[in-house]
Amino acid sequence: MSPNAPTSDDVTLLLAVAQRDEVAFAALYDRMARPIFSMVVRIVRGRAEAEEVLQEAFWQIWESAPSFNPELGSPFCWIVTIARRKAIDRLRANSRHLRRITEAQALRAEGEFAGPAAFEGLADGERSATVKAALARLGPDERRAIVLAFFDGLTHEEIAKALRAPVGTVKARIRRGLLKLKPALAGLELVGAN
After folding, report:
1. What are the pLDDT digits (tens) for 64-114?
2. Cα–Cα distance between 75 and 13 in angstroms, integer?
3. What is the pLDDT of residues 132-168, one digit of tens each?
4. Is residue 102 part of a domain?
């Protein structure tokens, strides 16, 4: 998978990147991107996803270049390690999201909107009770969408898939629900709110 035989040019480029040389970074990218992309696309099994992972990997290469030590290994191996970790992290994140979508679909099939785990992120006490009570006053469609978005951390697209509804409908339910929640939660300081 090596782009060519490792050369002192690779070391020189990476050491220049460590000094924040943008021209060296572009040359390093041109030299390494193709073989790294090939590896990443085999791991994540999708071109669009691989392109994102490649971008994240090269951002980390830019940020971490000062820590590169040529005595510990070749630039290519160092870059492969970074990209491979990014690709595996992406797989793990996708797996977690897929599991959340599957759980949300199961709750939908059972007619539930959220179990006790949905409220784990709330502080105990009055705030938690106030938020739960406000959510209970929403219609089931709005409540499900808000819980999936704000408590389970799903994107609009993931919520649409979980609820088997169009994305526009999901966005509308969230907006309507938030507008209804606003008066009930006015003046309530939520943890992490600005």
Report:
1. 999 999 988 889 989 999 999 998 888 888 777 677 667 666 665 555 554
2. 9
3. 788 888 888 888 888 888 777 778 888 888 888 999 9
4. no
The CA distance from 30 to 11, in Å, is 15
Pair 160, 167: CB distance under 8 Å = yes
CB 100 within 8 A of CB 158: yes
Q: How buried is 191 (Cβ within 10 angstroms: 0-12 exposed, 13-18 middle, 19+ buried)?
A: exposed
Q: How far apart are CA 58 and CA 126, in angstroms?
A: 46
Measured in Å, how far apart are the chain's first and last C-alpha atoms?
48
Neighbours of 83 (CB within 10 A): 26
| Both structure tokens of 123 | 């502080």
138 in the same domain as 79: no
Q: Are 34 and 3 in contact (CB under 8 A)?
A: yes
CATH of residue 134 = 1.10.10.10
